[in-house]
UniProtKB/TrEMBL annotation:
Gene Ontology MF term list: FAD binding; oxidoreductase activity
Organism: Hoeflea phototrophica (strain DSM 17068 / NCIMB 14078 / DFL-43)
Stored Pfam families: FAD_binding_4
Oxidoreductase among keywords: yes
Domain (FAD-binding PCMH-type) ranges: 1-174
Name of the protein in question: FAD/FMN-containing dehydrogenase
Superkingdom of origin: Bacteria
Protein family: Belongs to the oxygen-dependent FAD-linked oxidoreductase family.
Alphabetical keyword list: FAD, Flavoprotein, Oxidoreductase
Length: 448
């Protein structure tokens, strides 16, 4: 069976072979990969030389206890479906990424983060246990107390340790899902870093939108949006269907320098000059782009690349400036430019991306070799700062950059289910593995 199960970046679009979960048993090496809702930006959700196992069909929430805040659901359930059920009972996800259209299994496999990493860490910290189906026909319960090594490798393991069938997570009790937001604009990147320590100490959530095209004294200007669940926020409405939709991909990139310069000036100009507090709907704070179905089509026929990095706090101000200036010098325009802090709350995941410091996210339309060269230049800046790249936002980083970002990747490879493989893992880790094997053989021959 062929289905067009693309990633959100849409750089490589083609029909992909699919199969059922039962086919996992006895499958050949690298034959399969679970597929959630395709919100990974790159090739971590693809296995183009094998088959994908769609996890959405037939998925359901199995149990929810309003007294304890524990919920059990199939891996293919969307976070939006969980929120619809639990919000009327006064609960919310402890960690929610920038879209609610992520599956539960995908949130675990990518160990996603939100706007409150400095308080709560990653999604993996909410996971109580999960059921993992293996290609040797075993079903294994994993938790901090049962099969702990497999539990930790699966959180952030990008679907390579086995297929998550269902999971139990802990929810957060909140007075309202709606948010008391404090927003203000800042005139430069220095203004942001001067303010962020006090903001993060005071608020559960914080995120900054950056005008990536601003230059000179205004370089790095933006809007800071801090928030907390409102004591007087009232009942929250369930996730609404998208108000707008992009029905087809335009023949050109509509999010170019000209359109973004006008948009950025308007967005920045409308933001309050000094801190203004108001109650805002939870959806507009946490998942604003969910209101536009298929918004990624606006980048045109080539799709988009997202570059998300994390780098140490000690040099974050300088590193952020270098990244923005690098993109500017190459004429690139980023629509979704986001800056936020990662705290020191440890993740249980083996290959979790967040680590203490700051993370900058940039989106670029795919303009071919020039875009790839710019992304390589951004990598070099991150590398020199001692930072790392986000694998589930990536579709082009080198194997060497992956190893620098995740020097412990061999621990995941050692526990990876042999029947499971992704294009990302094949492109990065498996390019390093043959070199490693060759070196080991050479050393063995020398010893002999």
């Amino acid at each position: 069976m062929q289905s067009e199960l693309n990633s959100w970046g849409r750089v490589v679009r083609c029909p992909r072979a699919t199969t059922g979960l039962a086919s996992l048993t006895g499958s050949a090496a690298g034959a399969m990969l679970p597929y959630g809702n395709g919100r990974s930006y790159g090739d971590s959700c693809h296995n183009d030389s094998g088959r994908l196992v769609p996890m959405r069909p037939g998925s359901a929430i199995r149990a929810f206890d309003p007294d304890t805040g524990l919920l059990t659901a199939d891996a293919g359930v969307l976070l939006s479906e969980i929120l619809t059920l639990v919000m009327p009972h006064g609960y919310f996800l402890e960690v929610t990424p920038g879209t609610a259209q992520v599956t539960l299994g995908g949130a675990i496999a990518n160990d996603v983060h939100g706007k409150n990493h400095h308080r709560r860490g990653t999604f993996g910290r909410s996971v109580i246990s999960f059921e993992l189906f293996m290609s040797d026909d075993r079903r294994v319960t994993c938790s901090p107390d049962q099969n702990r090594q497999l539990f930790e490798a699966t959180i952030g393991g990008m679907g390579l340790t086995g297929v998550i069938e269902a999971a139990t997570i802990r929810l957060m009790k909140v007075p309202s899902a709606n948010v008391r937001q404090t927003a203000f604009r800042f005139g430069s990147i220095d203004d942001y870093f001067d303010a962020i320590d006090a903001i993060d100490a005071k608020h559960e959530y914080s995120v900054a939108w950056i005008d990536q095209l601003a230059r000179g004294a205004n370089l790095g200007r933006g809007v800071l949006m801090a928030g907390d669940h409102a004591e007087d926020g009232g009942p929250a409405k369930p996730p609404a269907p998208p108000r707008l939709a992009i029905p087809f991909s335009p023949p050109v990139n509509l999010l170019n320098r000209l359109t973004l310069k006008a948009f950025n000036a308007l967005y920045f100009g409308r933001a309050p000059k000094s801190a203004a507090t108001a109650i805002v709907p939870w959806g507009s704070y946490f998942h604003p782009l969910d209101a536009i179905r298929d918004w990624n089509r606006l980048y045109g026929p080539g799709g988009l690349f997202q570059h998300q990095s994390v780098y140490p706090a000690e040099t974050a101000r300088e590193t952020t400036i270098r990244l923005i200036e690098c993109a500017q010098s190459r004429g690139a325009a980023s629509f979704l430019t986001v800056l936020k802090r990662f705290g020191d709350v440890p993740s249980p995941g083996l290959l979790s991306f967040p680590r203490p410091g700051f993370t900058l996210t940039l989106d670029f339309a795919n303009s071919g070799p020039a875009t790839l060269k710019m992304l390589d230049a951004l990598d070099e800046i991150v590398l020199s700062a001692g930072g790392a790249l986000n694998p589930y936002k990536d579709q082009r980083m080198s194997a060497e950059m992956f190893e620098t970002s995740f020097p412990n990747w061999r621990e995941l490879e050692a526990i990876r289910d042999p029947a499971l493989m992704s294009d990302f893992w094949r492109r990065t880790a498996m390019q390093l593995k043959p070199v490693e094997d060759a070196e080991a053989q050479a050393q063995a021959a020398k010893s002999a």
